[in-house]
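[Meeting: bench + compute handoff]

Bench side (C.D.) handed over the final construct sequence. Compute side (W.E.) agreed to return the predicted structure before the next meeting so the bench team could plan truncations. Sequence as handed over:
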Amino acid sequence: MLSRYAKAFFNRLLTPPARLLLAMGIGPDVVTWIGTIGVTAAAFAFYPRGEFFVGTLVITAFVFSDTLDGTMARLAGRSSRWGAFLDSTLDRVADAAVFTALLWWFVGRGNQPWLAGVTTVCLIGGAVVSYAKARAEGLGMTCDVGIAERSERLVVALVATGFAGLFHAPWIQAVGLTLLAAATLVTVVQRLVHVHRQAVVA
């Protein structure tokens, strides 16, 4: 839901840097790889040490590449099935890195078993949400439903974690991740119901 409202705004915002990168001979796929590697490296460099605010700033900077590469592909007329596949696949890697790095903190120096469990739900639930859509579309059905799609999940996790680090208020992160885990489970159910209805009609 969030991506539908924000996509047009960020496309306009990122058009100038997208044109610059294309003029330099840098392609969309390169930006996709750089973004994923950057998110993954930042997540594991900062979050397991409890450096939530700085870590979130660095991760967010690389997350913008997720929109930048799409803008570049559109401007260059290079939109392709390979590009879409690569982008979606590496998105899963980046998402998993963020939640795994948080999980590492909670089971280690953070010593918060409850939040470790909540983060595990976010990690596994997010993977199931994405897989449900991919599998449904592979079977010729639609699955664009749910209150916690990829954009919402990432924004909530990063905002809650970043604010917790900025204000030294762990409760912000705890509340954010708990709500996110609940919303993710709801989304899984919503997608199962949505696809089941289509399958029964078919």
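W.E. noted at the follow-up: The chain has one domain: 2-201. C.D. will use this when planning the next construct.
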